[in-house]
């Protein structure tokens, strides 16, 4: 489960990682001085898409972004800074131990960066003072103790896949601040963190998700139907980006979270949703899709059949979503689009 930036920063504050002063809002607000208005979406590359803006007119900037369909914003003080770095903790696949990843370059795609330092920090010992010294020496900056300890603690305590600060900034007055957050929690461990999910207003998504190498997202209900949808995409010349079975009885929130999960994959260019509704209500599916479309700005092609299908189709059509009766036509249109 991916967390929104403001959710990740709320966890940062719990473990002593400093972040800029800010507020979360769904409506335009008055703000004195220069600020950064950050659209709260689960997709990446917000800056490149003009969805993060430095401004002295917060009120009208939010109005402009709302016209683009953004519904929630994090407004933060503008922080002048001298340098940007990268810092994260993730799982090292070879050792199955937490790994601290650092770079002297901030605001970058770490997979493309050449200047990267990786440090395995085993669970049995945790972060030690010499780890911090080594990290500070590499980055050429002091005062990283709380940052590194905090990243590691969040990774371990919340069963995270990734806890990332990009960029980590050295301010003009010598402070170190996390200007952004990226936190991904392991879906299979969410049952251990029900209190956190309740606090965030999020729901555990119980599904079977497998990420692949293609660019067409696939969502179905039932493993057989989902696999058949993937096969049809391949037969029509497309490449599936994933397998995601939402299961039977998926409700509005479950569908929304599933679409957000698939749509947040940067490789996904469009999404195919194939639902045969028995105990799954098509109107609930449609409402979940519409909720997700407020954040995922990618073409979605939907085939609905079953309980309340006419109401579901009506909801989708009224919101400009491609909805089909014929699954072959849906997949053909998706592949060719």
TrEMBL record:
<keyword id="KW-0436">Ligase</keyword>
<keyword id="KW-0547">Nucleotide-binding</keyword>
<dbReference type="InterPro" id="IPR013815">
    <property type="entry name" value="ATP_grasp_subdomain_1"/>
</dbReference>
<keyword id="KW-0460">Magnesium</keyword>
<keyword id="KW-0479">Metal-binding</keyword>
<dbReference type="GO" id="GO:0004775">
    <property type="term" value="F:succinate-CoA ligase (ADP-forming) activity"/>
</dbReference>
<dbReference type="InterPro" id="IPR017866">
    <property type="entry name" value="Succ-CoA_synthase_bsu_CS"/>
</dbReference>
<dbReference type="InterPro" id="IPR016102">
    <property type="entry name" value="Succinyl-CoA_synth-like"/>
</dbReference>
<dbReference type="GO" id="GO:0005524">
    <property type="term" value="F:ATP binding"/>
</dbReference>
<dbReference type="InterPro" id="IPR005811">
    <property type="entry name" value="SUCC_ACL_C"/>
</dbReference>
<dbReference type="GO" id="GO:0006099">
    <property type="term" value="P:tricarboxylic acid cycle"/>
</dbReference>
<dbReference type="GO" id="GO:0042709">
    <property type="term" value="C:succinate-CoA ligase complex"/>
</dbReference>
<feature type="domain" description="ATP-grasp">
    <location>
        <begin position="9"/>
        <end position="194"/>
    </location>
</feature>
<dbReference type="GO" id="GO:0046872">
    <property type="term" value="F:metal ion binding"/>
</dbReference>
<dbReference type="InterPro" id="IPR013650">
    <property type="entry name" value="ATP-grasp_succ-CoA_synth-type"/>
</dbReference>
<dbReference type="Pfam" id="PF08442">
    <property type="entry name" value="ATP-grasp_2"/>
</dbReference>
<dbReference type="InterPro" id="IPR011761">
    <property type="entry name" value="ATP-grasp"/>
</dbReference>
<protein>
    <submittedName>
        <fullName>Succinate--CoA ligase (ADP-forming)</fullName>
        <ecNumber>6.2.1.5</ecNumber>
    </submittedName>
</protein>
<dbReference type="InterPro" id="IPR005809">
    <property type="entry name" value="Succ_CoA_ligase-like_bsu"/>
</dbReference>
<dbReference type="Pfam" id="PF00549">
    <property type="entry name" value="Ligase_CoA"/>
</dbReference>
<dbReference type="GO" id="GO:0006104">
    <property type="term" value="P:succinyl-CoA metabolic process"/>
</dbReference>
<keyword id="KW-0067">ATP-binding</keyword>
